[in-house]
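thoughts on both lines:
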Amino acid sequence: MSTLTGVKRMERKPIKWGKILSYIVLFIFAVIYIGPLFFLVNTSLKTMPEFMKNATALTSQLNFENFAEAWEKANFPQYLLNSLIYTVSATSIYILTAIFVAFPIARGYVKHSGLILTLYVIALFLPPALIPQFQLILNLGLYNNPVGYIMLFLVNPIGIVILVNYVKTIPKELDEAAALDGCGYFQFVTQIVLPLIQPAIATVIVLHAIGIWNEIIAPTIYLTNKDYYPITRGLINFQGVYGSNWPTLAAAVLMLTFPMLILFLFLQRYIISGLTSGAVKG
């Protein structure tokens, strides 16, 4: 009898319309985001006559020659190498410095640490100071110089904010225990704090690296030598010459996204915990 009652209760379980609505909304957003990417992939696999015949139709065959053509004509090896150098070097330097800046602010080891953190938050909403920045790079003799270009990306407020709030989740008793054991400041940060904040570091790496990789305004202003162009600036030149060849151009755009997509897939398991555990915690 009790079994039949339990079955009836299961059958009468109300429909969760809120949950169904949430899935519908998520599906709509997925279509909005994935739709353009799908058409980009579809276009990159078409031949030019097929694209001119019907630009929105599905490709009838997989034409990977567009990728080889874009790789050769767009000078991708040189531009890709430049972008990798800029992204890896600037992100590495930024992460190392940001950790040693964020830790004392989070622990309150510097005066007015709360005010300093507030200033970083305010900086998130301020427009980039392009004119003073340009004058500074020019006066330092670093205009049209890869070193000067890398220096533009050594400061990023959002990374400091994420790291500070994540460090706050680490018990402060660890500092006291390490001090009693004779652990130095540098050793404590590198051997204890660093492994504990890996999710936050992964989040900052992805955000910072994608920002550098996709940057288009800075290389247009600060780099005039083609030998120093990153991939985004090189793509503008390629578009100017082969802009009418849409399948090849679509293949070039896809190749531009591959490195950051690989980075995201490699670090994605850390990103969610880094954002939810640190960035939204006061």
Summary: The first helix runs from residue 2 to 11. The chain is about 75% helix and 0% strand. The two ends are 53 Å apart (CA to CA). Residues 278-282 have pLDDT under 50 and may be disordered.
